[in-house]
């Protein structure tokens, strides 16, 4: 991988040395052996906790955040996102250059990770950018009730999967992860939105959080990175902390049990 370009010079806090792309990939590598799905989330928030500025997360970002955003996608098997976030952020598919594609082949991954869209209603327009601007076929994770109409509406633009469990009117995330794992997609990256993120947290399915702290205040009524009807406390431990010349902080937190497991495996 190439070194980080201008505006993306990362420094590892506590170490002080520069962090280039090869080291960045090591810092954010998934566990070497996965017997189940590993769910990583990637979010950005302001200093006062806002997940968006002017309604979009992109308003908080800088060049370093965009670079890390791309790197995390390069390492994942699949990018999972809620339908609402895909609309608001105008999601397209993942596009990678020759170098990242070659690195993915070396890790035994497909050249490009698909985007998997989570939607209970399945009311998606085949003209959405995700379906018209993608190098690989997107996945749609929906429920049994919505599946026939959704598959008919999207046709060949997407592969539509039934991710219901006991309730045919709901998407069950455990079932969704099992569907993805059956396709060899265990390195999961979710980019939100906050409601989907909250469900991963509430169900105990989130293994790690990569949170960029943007050096700005937003105020107003902006949402947090996690929302939902039910609160839950999940103990997390810091894996590392990066910064850049623009004052952004790039944090990686692991679920407490996972951090202990990684420490034990490295001894």
Explain this structure to me?
The chain is built from 9 helices and 11 strands. With 267 residues, the chain is of the alpha/beta class. It has an 11-stranded mixed β-sheet, sandwiched between helices. A hairpin with a 5-residue loop joins strand 10 (236-243) and strand 11. The chain is globular and about 55 Å long. The model is unreliable at 1-7 and 259-267 (pLDDT under 50).
The arrangement of helices and strands along the chain is EEHEHEHHEHEHEHEHEEEH
Which structural class fits the helix and strand makeup?
alpha/beta
Rg, alpha carbons: 18 Å
Structure annotation, total helices: 9
Mean pLDDT across every amino acid position? 91
Oligomeric state of shown chains: single chain
How far apart are the termini?
29 Å
State the helicity in percent bands: 25-40%
Domain Bacterial bifunctional deaminase-reductase C-terminal: 38-249
Protein name: Pyrimidine reductase family protein
Pfam family, one: RibD_C
Keywords: NADP, Oxidoreductase
What is the structure about, briefly put?
The chain is an alpha/beta fold and 267 residues long. The protein has helices at 21-27, 63-75, 83-88, 98-106, 129-132, 147-154, 173-182, 194-202, 256-266, and strands at residues 10-12, 18-19, 38-46, 78-82, 115-118, 139-142, 159-162, 187-190, 208-214, 236-243, 249-255.
List the helices and strands and how they pair.
Layout: E1 10-12, E2 18-19, H1 21-27, E3 38-46, H2 63-75, E4 78-82, H3 83-88, H4 98-106, E5 115-118, H5 129-132, E6 139-142, H6 147-154, E7 159-162, H7 173-182, E8 187-190, H8 194-202, E9 208-214, E10 236-243, E11 249-255, H9 256-266
Parallel strand pairs: 3-8, 3-9, 4-5, 4-8, 5-6, 6-7
Antiparallel strand pairs: 1-2, 1-10, 9-11, 10-11
